[in-house]
Specification:
heterotetramer, A alpha+beta (about 750), B alpha/beta (about 230), C alpha+beta (about 80), A: about 750 residues, alpha+beta, seven-stranded mixed sheet, 28 strands, about 25% strand, globular, C: alpha+beta, Mth169, Chain: A, elongated, binds adenosine-5'-diphosphate, binds magnesium ion
């Protein structure tokens, strides 16, 4: 030990985020007081971010199995079988706090981290997605944060050459001091060549590859588990700088080594760096490790064991190799100009023994830290049932209904949440690799699988205002919406990854939001045969006691068996029929219409009937696979008329001509509720009129409600023959908001 | 046609151009690692898109000084066809094989979207399958595609017919509003004097078949296959 | 008055650009380089002619926009011009 | 020996970065700025201790790699360190 070894005071313990009882538990495990390095290790291993101590109990309730699931939660990413010997590997992760402090680098390193989670399992990343939440546009920080985050995500993904094909981007005041940056990566691997992180084989070398270790991000993991307050912003802890070029080399080198059989286990060094990667690998295999920190490649001089063990320097990996294969591996990493160092070996001891400069810097049992971290059953309160909003009580502002509908439509399409996010995805290379067959802007992105007619469909969604209004239906809705988006392009949904963004779990009402969102998700996953295969929890998203809206972001992955039978949202041809599949109840509670047009943020969110959801979706998917629809779009945010408008706007040719529709919206529910109600489980399809009767009959045979909406034609939307809404006006409104805002 | 694709650390549209060459010519191209100092015999040398060396310092700068570029230069001077796409174009200008430089886009943002190009001439090995004055639709995906040269050079390349492609409207008009990066005279691609070296920012290799929504990039590769067979 | 502003990464912060330039110099045969750090350089033409006022203004520009002090340091030089 | 290298755009070459910074400063309310030019700044740690030799080496680095002399100028300062 160095002479400067400080005394472990109560203050130091608190600074490390350990509670008194956790510290006592640590003393019990060691049978003595920890030294500083050991305290640091306990602190990061038992941080909320690494240990899931507040969420574990509830995460366990999520369904994680299906015949096609190869690997569920617990590994670096989830793995599903997509047929023909191939597997899709995917995960989503948050990088919220660093992105608020340094938007470009925070977002960039978020992308870097999730990419490593996926290629560490042997997959070549083939697509990225991202879920972004910003504060209200009027907030003085928002513009700068949007610009930095989007540039950072693009900067990393574009450079490494993985297409960023989808995501979401919305705004709400609850994110003013806590933006959300959730990044998702999807990779492709041979189903029988998946790499795991379970260490095995005493004597096998532990190998460090990638970039050198510096003093960056020390305590990143504890930062991600601490609330923000003004002081934290002042303190401005270190964030990491990403190096996508090195990550690209690391990716190629790892995949090259994975073509051999030299690897026993591999794990990226993410949060809590060398500590968590070594503890987790050893813990899973019940092994011990001897680490010699003198061999760790270091970027700076005079680093202490504490710093080396806790550094979160990016672009690094830890592997266990088979004995005798070191030279072969070294040659590959040297070819790619990366550091390669044998830093230790596995033992049978079950202990982590860390040495440096000939002295023992830490000596800890692995299992209690890795597998038996604290687990809390935090008190939680159930959400109160929100009031039902009746369409008739939401007055149409000026009495005369029709003009109001067109005014409202234009306003909705240019509202921050619904406005086109082209300004965002234009900055993402969404085409590199040459296999993007559906670009951003549709229901799900579609990426072809090389050498086949098959494709993966990918989407990411969440509707936080529903989750805030009633967490249980919000959680179910988020899952259902991704399932619906995959279905709408003709894909068979296979599974989800989640990124649970919430406030402080130490507050019962926040814990309640978490518990009930999970419950809704669980029900939806079960009903839709749509398991959770990976995920991430980000708590403490609050500033000065004000929490974000509960935001369980869901990333969904599905497979399309033949891209010839894929559907897109763009209207195709004059004279085709438009048909709604699913039921209209005109539900306006917690809708965008209510918030943006009536200025009311309340009411129960739309009910999610999972049986109906499944029935309608399975029906639509079958029709798409049989080639019956020429276009299809699910109905979500903004309701029916917004969805139709999106289909018309998507039909724009390079020369700017668009195809509209003649709509018949006559009904017993008030027009504004029919047009903008957000009832779930619905799809709009475009069909050649010769098939319409058959379609209606086939739906009726399954008790699926349908409604003829009208016919494609003209360059406008006309409603009930009385009112014409110019598509070019809508387009300007829809496309204009974000670029205008950013230019402001 | 035998093609060779040079791979630099950080190349990332190598896959795209390999797929395109394979699809159009029926033959897989040779892959050449940047450290090689020798190039096998080839009818076409391709420098693919990407971020060679991270594009740190300046895009293409470090790759332009790698050993393999000496060989590429010798071949280019001997008349072998050389195609640089995006980062490849940046490398060719940095290496002095093509005139001008590619600066940061006018609005300093990466831009990925479909654009239209006017094919300036169809009497080259790269473009003979296009029609005179044809407008094609292909994507761009770059941060540094803002073509610039001093006025003397500009006059020369315009006068010598070295401009290969220009950004235009779908109808073929030159217009600043459709120029994605601020390039001078809307220049999207240039030839060397002998027109055996072409550099362009857009990605014809990503529009090869209809599943990619458009196949306007295919004739470029067909031209090469036909004239270099 | 002219202000020259240097924005550099704090020591300890990874500098991928500098690292890459260093490697490139080495492979071009420039051996005698121990380290390279890359930063930004800005020249501002200011209306202000009082040095103290000018420094205060540029200081404010640095903290509010030009540098992110989480990872960057800045240094201001003034020059009559 | 330490070398400080400034790489700036030749006058007459458009500087979108500088312009963007200028606009951003203006929209933050910093009015008294007439012009902004942005360049690169490199710090090299050299083994060489002879100033003349060092300058020649850095000069060569600039022309061969660090600057693109079609659009950029460079300026070298040496400093014992
Ligand atoms: N941050 C983003 N990155 C990439 N694409 C985005 C982003 N935000 C939105 N998009 C794209 O915009 C389209 C509309 O998004 P959204 O309104 O969330 O769709 P939906 O309602 O169908 O879920 C989708 O294709 C989505 O992928
Ligand atoms: Mg959708």
């Amino acid at each position: 030990m160095s002479d400067a070894e400080p005394i472990i005071t109560a203050e130091l313990i608190a600074e490390h985020g350990l509670s008194e009882s956790e510290y006592r538990q640590a003393q019990d495990i060691l049978g003595r007081d920890p030294n500083l390095t050991e305290l640091g290790i306990f602190s990061v291993m038992w941080s909320e971010h690494c240990s899931y101590k507040s969420s574990k109990k509830w995460l366990k309730t999520l369904p994680t199995e299906a015949p096609w699931v190869i690997c569920g939660p617990g590994e670096n990413a989830g793995v599903v079988d997509i047929g023909d010997g191939q597997a899709a590997i995917f995960k989503m992760e948050s990088h919220n706090h660093p992105s608020f402090i340094e938007p470009y680098q925070g977002a960039a390193t978020g992308v870097g981290g999730i990419l490593r989670d996926v290629f560490t399992m042997g997959a070549r990343p083939i697509a990225n997605l991202n879920c972004l939440r910003f504060g209200e546009p009027e907030n003085s920080k928002t513009r700068h944060l949007v610009a930095g985050v989007v540039a950072g995500i693009g900067g990393y993904g574009n450079c490494i050459g993985v297409p960023t094909v989808g995501g979401e981007c919305t705004f709400h005041e609850s994110y003013n001091g806590n933006i959300l940056v959730n990044a998702m990566t999807v990779g492709l691997a041979d189903a029988d060549r998946i790499f795991y992180s379970t260490a095995a084989g005493a004597g096998n070398p532990v190998v460090y590859v990638g970039s050198k270790t510096g003093r960056d991000g020390i305590h990143g993991a504890t930062m991600a588990s601490a609330e923000f307050d003004e002081a934290a912003e002042e303190k401005r802890p270190t964030v990491q700088v990403g190096d996508p070029f090195t990550e690209k080399l690391l990716l190629e080198a790892c995949l090259e080594l994975m073509d051999t059989d030299a690897i026993v286990a591999i794990q990226d060094m993410g949060a809590a760096g060398l500590t968590s990667s070594s503890f987790e690998m050893a813990g899973k295999g019940g092994m011990g490790v001897e680490l010699n920190l003198d061999h760790v490649p270091q970027r700076e001089t005079g680093m202490t064991p504490y710093e080396i063990m806790l550094s979160e320097s990016q672009e690094r990996m830890l592997m266990v190799l088979k004995q005798g294969r070191e030279d072969e591996a070294r040659r590959i990493f040297e070819k790619w100009e990366l550091d390669f160092a044998v830093v230790g070996h596995l033992t049978e001891s079950g202990r982590m023994v860390v040495t440096m400069h000939g002295a023992v810097a830490a000596d800890l049992p692995i299992a209690p830290l890795a597998n038996a971290s604290p687990e809390y059953d935090r008190p939680w309160t159930a959400a109160s049932t929100p009031n039902e909003i009746h369409a008739a009580d939401i007055p149409v502002p000026n009495g005369t209904e029709l003009p109001e509908v067109s005014v409202a439509l234009e306003k909705l399409l240019s509202s921050p949440d619904l406005a086109s996010k082209r300004w965002v995805w234009d900055q993402y290379d969404h085409l590199v690799m040459g296999r993007t067959v559906q670009r951003p802007g549709g229901d799900a992105a579609v990426v072809r699988l090389p050498g086949t007619d098959k494709a993966l469909a990918l989407t990411a969604d969440c509707t936080p205002r529903y989750c805030a209004a009633f967490p249980r239906s919000g959680g179910a809705q988020a899952v259902a919406e991704t399932w619906r988006n995959l279905t709408a392009v003709g894909a068979r949904p296979l599974g989800i990854t989640d990124c649970m963004n919430f406030g402080s779990p130490e507050r019962p009402e926040i814990m309640g939001q978490f518990v009930e969102c999970i419950e809704g998700m669980r029900e939806a996953c079960l009903a839709l045969d749509y398991p959770v295969v990976s995920g991430n929890v980000s708590f403490y998203n609050e500033t000065n006691g004000a929490a974000i809206q509960p935001t369980p972001a869901i990333g969904g992955v599905g497979v399309i068996d033949s891209i010839d039978a894929m559907a897109t949202i763009a209207l195709k041809a004059d004279g085709n029929d438009l048909v709604l599949i699913g039921e209209c109840n005109g539900h306006l509670g917690a809708s965008l219409y209510l918030r943006e047009i009536a200025g009311i943020s309340e009411g129960a969110p739309p009910p999610v009937d999972l049986e109906i959801e499944r029935r309608n979706g399975d029906f639509v998917r079958k029709q798409i696979m049989e080639g019956r629809f020429v276009s299809c779009h699910d109905v979500s945010d903004g309701g029916l008329l917004v969805a139709i408008a999106e289909m018309a706007l998507a039909s724009a040719t390079p020369r700017g001509t668009m195809l509209g529709a003649h709509l018949h919206l006559d009904t017993d529910i008030p027009l504004h509720a029919l047009a903008f109600g957000e009832d779930q489980g619905r799809y709009i399809v475009e069909i050649d009129p010769v098939g319409t009767e058959d379609l209606l009959a086939a739906a009726a045979a399954k008790d699926i409600p349908t409604r003829r909406l009208g016919r494609c034609g003209s360059e406008a939307l006309t409603i009930n023959g009385e009112q014409t809404i110019s598509l070019s006006v809508l387009r300007r409104a829809h496309e204009g908001w974000l670029p205008n805002y950013m230019a402001g | 046609m035998k093609a060779a694709v040079v791979i630099f650390p950080g190349s990332n549209r190598d896959v795209d151009v390999i797929d395109a060459l394979t699809a159009v010519s029926g033959k897989e191209p040779l892959l050449i690692w940047h450290r090689n100092t020798e190039l096998p015999k080839a009818d076409l040398i391709v420098l693919p898109g990407g971020f060679s060396y991270g594009d740190y310092l300046r895009s293409g700068a470090m790759a332009a000084r790698s050993p393999i570029l000496k060989e590429v230069t010798v071949r280019a001077q001997a008349g072998v066809a050389v195609l640089g796409i995006c980062n490849g174009f940046q490398i060719l200008t940095e290496a002095g094989l093509l005139p001008g430089v590619l600066m940061a886009n006018r609005d300093l943002k990466f831009v990925c979207r479909n654009i239209h190009l006017k094919v300036e001439r169809t009497d080259t090995v790269f473009t003979e399958r296009y029609a005179e004055g044809q407008v094609i639709r292909v994507p761009v995906a770059h941060h540094d595609g803002n073509y610039f040269s001093d006025s003397e050079t500009l006059t020369r390349i315009e006068g010598e017919g070295q401009v290969a492609f220009r950004y235009c409207t779908p109808e073929g008009h030159l217009d600043d509003s459709v120029n994605p990066n601020g390039s001078i005279n809307g220049i999207a691609g240039v030839y060397n004097e002998n027109r055996n070296v072409l550099g362009l920012m857009p990605h014809p290799e990503d529009h090869i078949d209809e599943s990619q929504s458009c196949a306007d990039g295919r004739p470029l590769f067909e031209s090469l296959v036909e004239s270099l067979a | 008055m002219k202000a020259r502003v240097h924005i550099t990464l704090k020591s300890g912060v990874l500098d991928p650009q500098g690292k890459a330039v260093h490697n490139a110099l080495t492979s071009l045969g420039f051996d005698g380089v121990d380290d390279v750090r890359q930063g930004k350089y800005l020249e501002l033409d200011l209306v202000e002619s009082d040095a103290e006022q000018a420094r205060a203004a540029v200081e404010a520009m640095c903290t509010r926009l030009l540098a992110n002090t989480v990872i960057e340091d800045y240094q201001i030089e003034l020059e009559d011009g």
